[in-house]
Amino acid sequence: MFNYILGLFSNDMGIDLGTASVLVFIKGQDIVLREPSVVAMERDTKHVLAIGKEAKKMLGKTPMNIIAVRPLRNGVIADFEATEKMIRYFIKKVHKKRTLLHPRVVIGVPSGITEVERRAVRESAEQAGAREVYLIDEPMAAAIGAGVPIQEAQGSMIVDIGGGTTEVAVISLGGMVVAKSLEVAGDKMDEALVQYFRRKSNLTIGENTAEDVKIKIGSAFPLEKEISIDVKGRNLLTGLPKTVSINSEDVRTALSDPIRKIIDVIRGVLEETPAELAADLVDRGIILSGGGSLIKGLPELLSQETELPVKRADDPLTCVVRGTGAYLEELDNIRNSKKKNID
Predict the structure, then answer these.
(1) Hey, which end of the chain has fewer CB within 10 Å, N or C?
(2) Is 116:109 a contact under the CB 8 Å cutoff?
(3) What residues are paired with 323 via a beta bridge?
(4) What integer is the mean pLDDT of 230-245?
(5) Measured between alpha carbons, how far is 2 from 39 in angstroms, rounded to an integer?
(6) pLDDT for 124-157, tens place per residue?
(7) What is the set of domains in the chain, with CATH numbers?
(8) Which residues are 167's β-sheet partners?
(9) What residues have CB less than 8 Å from 203, skipping those under 6 apart?
(10) pTM of the model
């Protein structure tokens, strides 16, 4: 799967292979690619018609002979063939020519995936020609990318809400002391909105529309001024196009179930956190990262539920991929230190 990645990059790189989007960080160049994780192809021949942004526009709009798929589900690869085609396309967009140099690769993976899934990712990269392959748990990568001082002998808590999974971890002395992975995140919020429209308005909408509603007026906590928008879809009773008005209070109700599940897993991690580290969190609080953390009012709700200070990272969407890049730098520092000691 990683043949094209490893063959086209001469520099070390970090990859956030996410359910909703793929981000690539090149050492010395910063983030060079950010595209939706969507592939559109012909149903019978599997010939690729569009990938990334163009493919995402096709979700829910394709004729019978075309399918638009998300090859990654719940943070792991669900369709290897589609994933390989997607990665190949993205890398070609970044680099126009091949190189014989073999890079080191750091890949962010959900903390809850199995050893079999970890081994499959690692072996695929090694067989493709990487001279070194490292996997880093996404909550650790997110913490590094958010600037959390993970090496200190103090507790820090990261909550990374992506497209497919929510990763929660308490970190101290460079390791995860307590960590949980939940298959409820941005995609489940979109699904909750789709179901809400069906129940309350007899309206069926697509996932792109649901995501747009979530971004525009979605909230987890009452807003100072509630807002509303018109939403277009298909009337389930008549089969005809229909427009309904929905306000932020309705959307908040629709999102309450997935958000409650996220709160529950956060509370579960806090309950398992050793007392000394829990005491650190009283002052240090919780750091939010990932696209799902951008829901309006989420920090306020989590602070109310946990009685801890909560804040978003400066750039929540790029924390994981920046963490993979910082991890590459740390590898160099460790090796340079070892070399000096030997000399």
Answers:
(1) C
(2) no
(3) none
(4) 94
(5) 17
(6) 666 555 677 789 999 999 999 999 999 999 999 9
(7) 3-142+319-342 (3.30.420.40), 148-312 (3.30.420.40)
(8) 160, 181
(9) 197, 231, 233, 234, 235, 236, 242, 244
(10) 0.86
